[in-house]
């Protein structure tokens, strides 16, 4: 029953998406409003149908309906309820359905929100949204049907991959998709503007919040992936420059460039072609990411099953999108000449220009690193893996340059900055950087890279503080408030600017965490018998014994380890090795004790004849990474809050 | 046309072409590191005659080394093809084909050969040393060793259909004719 409902829904949705695309295109050709309304209603209906399909699949999981192949492959009777409910996106088919559902949701919301405000762009917006939906629904109906009936109805399912049974992994994919799909709305608006030949600032104002929201979701999605890797995979790290990780990082980099670059067009009416290019590139990179992840053309530690048929489909789909969007840009780009030129190299505009260049170069380095093995194999047949050393050597300098710019950019006025003003504005942050760096050296950090990185962080922190302070003082003078209320007043008056600065502050926190946990990390690999101990930084870790553990769908063993400092117990940690009943692959559960300074991270490897193999990591400042992204979320939320009307006044 | 337009077109076309090519490759396929390396020498006893075969003594000859076992179903599938290889090239004095019995009972191996026939020598590897030396991870595996004792090519899996043709036409035939192999594929 469920699968009939589900199958019916996705097929009807496919037909409606096709009809909607036709209606929208007809409305563009004939300019008759009735066609636009039909296209809009089609989108609404597609959303309703896909919601039904999602509901049907969810119900199938919760009711253990192993008549569906997808349910039988991705869940079983002992799977805890929470993971049962979220197993829906545990495989390719459900992931595509979730993706399509989000696309339908966003398109429907966009159609409703912008129906009155953007009647001219609406037919294009609907045409592009329905065409994208049509593409995804073709993939789902013909190549990745989650409602496919099982050949034989099994008594129990195969179970969900144990590695995916973790809260980080439950939320990682939906956030990524919310980000990926979110960029399709600004993309559709940009294409509408391009096709209509009216690339003024309107499409940017209309999509500012869409972009911010998509960017934030993508940021959360990426960090959640790292969080999951850190807590679940047990190798003590959170980012490995794996092709699948890079696939989500590339659209983020270009999306971030876009996010900044649109401000220039809004304020100064420059960078018009550039902005359209950036959003097309961002959206294309989300599709490229889907292709890399789902087709298996690059070898990755993420062991997704590869399916060449789907690979061919996604590639064809991507080709159509790329040819259509970049083709339109190439053909129509000449109409979008900038009305203004950059006045001075020392100005906000040029800071944004450099910001964009750095982000694009950063993306290019990741892009080349990710695709290099594929290129080399295509031309020479040799096999290589591009790993962390390449990225660290190439990416880190660019990242540092970007952070420096992050400090200077907001200080610069539009058009032209006078050197005196710049000197006055940077004096205090520079002093802070010098003092902070000296303090860091005194604290025992002598390596050049982290010192330089931290100096930059102090400097940027100084500029942010200074900015808040100036705002508060101004407000204090004007309205005679106390310092704190004046600060709040300044922030609420200009949520967008201060939201941005808070995001920058979150980025600084993350960078502190990245530097700490990559440069100063201590790693030990020891064999212990009960009573043995080993040193981990200033800590001593002692093995007390071993115990058995069990959960609803796994059993295993745990090592009991005492962490001591100066003879006193800090904490007792119990890393586990689990065997899930349905999977022959044992998984590790790292035991972690964290605070603001460091994580003590212990992993139980397999027992040998001589004792237990224990891996110990001392990871400094990791918590700053997770907290930093929270601050980024806060800043973005503040920025999102700002209404449009106010923006127009400013522009 | 402006430079940026050409750049966009070039990049888009290149990426699509690369991915298209990528779809027809298997990223999980790992080539053997042994190709191009000197073959490990060994001295092993023939299963029926008891004669000791040493690889050093076969310098100047093209050697095909086939690892097999009686318990291996794929080995049975390729066995008659191996006989065919020996039939075709065996008369050439520069050609030697050797089977290596991999992790098997001697008796079972003998019975296998009696049942399915044999026209070339098979060596015993009781301690599995030859198998380890050649990095054999599963049978059947076939190695082509050139006149200088260098491993030219390695094939994993049974020699059937196009694989048999590959080994006969693109490995052994050109090498016996003194030609350079372009690739092992």
Characteristics:
heterodimer; A: 651 residues; alpha+beta; 4 domains; six-stranded antiparallel β-sheet; four-stranded antiparallel β-sheet; 65% helix; B: 185 residues; alpha/beta; five-stranded mixed β-sheet; two-stranded antiparallel sheet; 37% helix; elongated
What does this structure look like?
Chain A is of the alpha+beta class. Chain A contains 20 helices and ten strands. In chain A, strands 2, 3, 4, 5, 6 and 7 form a six-stranded antiparallel sheet that branches. A four-stranded antiparallel sheet of chain A has the order 1-10-9-8, covered by helices on one side. In chain A, helix 8 crosses helix 11 (272-295), helix 14 packs parallel to helix 16 (448-479) and helix 16 crosses helix 17. The N and C termini of chain A lie far apart (56 Å). Chain B is of the alpha/beta class. Chain B is built from five helices and seven strands. In chain B, the strands form two sheets. In chain B, strands 5-4-3-6-7 form a five-stranded mixed sheet, covered by helices on one side. In chain B, strands 1-2 form a two-stranded antiparallel sheet. The radius of gyration of chain B is 21 Å and the shape is elongated. The mean pLDDT of chain B is 87. The A-B interface holds A 273, 277, 288, 291, 295-299, 306, 308, 311-312, 315, 318-319, 322-323, 326, 329-330, 333, 371, 373-375, 377-378, 381, 383 and B 1-2, 4-5, 8-9, 12, 15-16, 18-23, 25, 27-28, 30-31, 183.
């Amino acid at each position: 029953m469920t699968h009939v409902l589900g199958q019916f829904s996705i097929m009807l949705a496919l037909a409606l998406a096709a009809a909607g695309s036709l209606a929208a295109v007809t409305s563009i050709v004939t300019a008759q409003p009735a066609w636009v309304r039909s296209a809009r209603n089609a989108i609404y209906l597609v959303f309703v149908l896909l919601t039904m399909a999602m509901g049907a699949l969810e119900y199938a999981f919760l009711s253990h309906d192993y008549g569906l192949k997808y349910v039988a492959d991705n869940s079983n009777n002992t799977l805890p309820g929470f993971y049962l409910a979220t197993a829906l996106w545990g495989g390719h088919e459900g992931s595509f359905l979730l993706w399509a559902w989000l696309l339908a949701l966003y398109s429907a919301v966009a159609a409703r929100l912008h129906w009155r405000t953007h009647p001219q762009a609406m037919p294009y917006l609907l045409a592009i949204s329905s065409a994208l939906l049509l593409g995804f629904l073709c993939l789902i109906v013909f190549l990745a049907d989650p409602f496919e009936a099982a050949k034989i109805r099994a008594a129990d399912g195969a179970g969900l991959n144990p590695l995916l049974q973790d809260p980080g992994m439950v939320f990682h994919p939906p956030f990524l998709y919310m980000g990926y799909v979110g960029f399709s709305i600004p993309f559709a608006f940009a294409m509408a503007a391009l096709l209509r030949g009216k690339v003024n600032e309107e499409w940017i104002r209309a999509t500012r919040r869409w972009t911010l929201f998509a960017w934030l979701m993508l940021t959360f999605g990426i960090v959640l992936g790292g969080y999951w890797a850190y807590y679940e995979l047990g190798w003590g790290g959170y980012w490995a420059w794996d092709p699948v990780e890079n696939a989500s990082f590339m659209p983020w980099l270009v999306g971030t460039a876009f996010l900044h670059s649109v401000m220039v067009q809004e304020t100064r009416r420059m960078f018009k072609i550039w902005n359209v290019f950036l959003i097309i590139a961002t959206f294309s990179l989300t599709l490229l990411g889907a292709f890399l992840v789902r087709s298996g053309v690059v070898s990755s530690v993420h062991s997704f099953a590869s399916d060449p048929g789907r690979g061919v489909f996604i590639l064809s789909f991507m080709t159509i999108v790329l040819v259509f969007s970049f083709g339109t840009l190439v053909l129509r780009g000449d109409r979008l000449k900038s009305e203004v030129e950059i006045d001075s190299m020392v100005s906000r505009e040029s800071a944004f220009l450099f910001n964009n260049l750095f982000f694009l170069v950063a993306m290019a380095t990741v892009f080349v690193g990710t695709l290099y093995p594929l290129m080399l194999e295509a031309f020479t047949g040799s096999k290589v893996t591009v790993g962390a050393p390449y990225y660290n050597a190439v990416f880190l300098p660019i990242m540092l340059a970007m952070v420096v710019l992050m400090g200077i950019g907001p200080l610069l006025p539009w058009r032209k900055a006078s050197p005196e003003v710049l000197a006055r504005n940077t004096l205090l942050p520079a002093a802070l950087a010098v003092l902070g760096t000296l303090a860091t050296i005194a604290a025992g950090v002598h390596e050049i890279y982290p010192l330089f990185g931290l100096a930059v962080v102090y400097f940027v922190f100084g500029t942010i503080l200074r900015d808040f302070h100036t705002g508060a003082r101004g407000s204090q003078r004007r309205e005679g408030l106390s310092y704190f209320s004046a600060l709040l007043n300044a922030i609420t008056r200009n949520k967008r600017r201060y939201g941005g600065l808070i995001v920058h502050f979150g980025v600084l926190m993350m960078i502190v965490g990245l530097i700490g946990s990559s440069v100063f990390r201590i790693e030990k690999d020891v064999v212990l018998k009960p009573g043995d101990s080993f040193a981990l930084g200033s800590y001593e870790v002692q093995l007390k014994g071993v115990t058995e553990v069990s959960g609803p769908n796994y059993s295993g063993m745990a090592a009991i380890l005492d962490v001591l400092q100066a003879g006193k117990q800090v904490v007792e940690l119990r890393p586990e090795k689990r065997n899930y009943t349905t999977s022959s692959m044992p998984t590790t559960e790292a035991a972690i004790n964290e605070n603001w300074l460091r994580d003590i991270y212990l992993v139980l490897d397999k027992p040998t004849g001589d004792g237990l193999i224990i891996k110990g990591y001392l990871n400094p400042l990791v918590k700053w990474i997770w907290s930093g992204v929270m601050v980024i979320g806060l800043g973005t939320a503040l920025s999102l809050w700002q209404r449009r009307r106010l923006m127009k006044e400013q522009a | 046309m402006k430079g940026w337009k050409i750049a966009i077109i070039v990049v888009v076309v290149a990426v699509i072409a690369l991915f298209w090519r990528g779809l027809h490759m298997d990223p999980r396929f790992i080539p053997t590191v042994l190709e191009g390396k000197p073959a490990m020498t060994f001295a092993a006893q023939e299963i029926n005659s008891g004669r000791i075969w040493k690889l050093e003594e076969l310098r100047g000859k093209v050697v095909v080394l086939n690892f097999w076992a009686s318990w291996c179903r794929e080995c049975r599938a390729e066995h008659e093809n191996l006989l065919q290889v020996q039939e075709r090239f065996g008369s050439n004095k520069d050609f030697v084909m050797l089977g290596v019995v991999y992790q098997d009972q001697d008796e079972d191996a003998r019975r296998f050969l009696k049942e399915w026939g044999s026209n070339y020598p098979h060596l015993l590897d009781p301690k599995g040393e030859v198998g380890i030396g050649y990095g054999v991870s599963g049978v059947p595996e076939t190695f082509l060793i050139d006149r200088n004792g260098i491993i030219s090519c390695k094939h994993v899996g049974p020699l059937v259909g196009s694989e048999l043709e590959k080994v006969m036409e693109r490995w052994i035939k050109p090498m016996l004719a003194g030609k350079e192999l372009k690739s092992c594929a």
